[in-house]
Design goal:
Layout: H1 9-12, H2 21-37, H3 45-67, H4 75-92, H5 94-106
Helix pairs in contact: 2-3, 3-4, 4-5
């Protein structure tokens, strides 16, 4: 008996959510807000912070779920819970926030 054939690479991941206009709009908002609006005095700081939070909580779980294999059951829930947990930990704990910033810096992110 032969083992079942592995699906083609394109079928192992679901990238279709990354083609949704809402995801692209949120990504665009995140980029424009973080690179062009924050700290420039154009928009109040509290608003740019909320815009970043809103856009991030749309972009990150969808992107993370797209990177998880289709074979992983509950991957969308897992991705959402993981992103929200890290976001909440960073918001509530200075130590968690510092650790996340240090990890991002280690990866070359600012």
């Amino acid at each position: 008996m032969t083992p079942p054939a592995r699906p083609p690479r394109a079928k192992r991941f679901d990238l279709t959510p990354l083609t949704h206009p809402l995801w692209w709009a949120a990504l665009g908002l995140l980029v424009v807000n973080d690179d062009m609006l924050k700290g420039r005095g154009i928009v109040p700081g509290w608003l740019t912070g909320k815009l970043s939070d809103f856009a991030f909580l749309i972009v990150a779980p969808v992107l993370f779920a797209a990177m998880l294999p289709l074979a992983l059951r509950g991957r969308r829930v897992l991705a959402t819970v993981a992103v929200v947990a890290v976001y909440t930990a960073a918001d509530l704990s200075r130590a968690a926030s510092d650790a996340i910033v240090a990890a991002a810096a280690h990866l070359g992110l600012r």
